[in-house]
Amino acid sequence: MPKAKVVLSEKYLLQALDRVAKNALGYSVLYINISKLKPKNRQPEFVKIIALLFESIIGIAKGSMFILSNGDIALLSKNITEAEIDEAVKKLRGGLAADPVLSHDSRDFALVYSFPKDFLTFYGKIEKMVAENDEETAAVREEKQPPVEAGDMDKIISVLDDVDMSELVKRQSVLQTHNHGFSVLMQEFFIAVKDLSACIGDNKDLLANRWLFQYLTQLLDKKMLMAFSSAEIAVWPQKISMNLNLSSVFSREFVDFAKKFLKPEQQIIVEVQVMDVLNNLKLYHEVKDILHKGGHKLLIDSLSPVSLSMLSLENLRPDMIKVFWEPLLAYDNDNENFKKAVSSLGAENVILAKCDGDEALRWGMSYGINTFQGPFMDEIEVALIRRQCPDAKNCTAAECLKRRRLLQGMFRDECSHKDILEKLL
Question: Residue 324 phi/psi, 5° resolution?
Answer without folding.
Answer: -90, 125
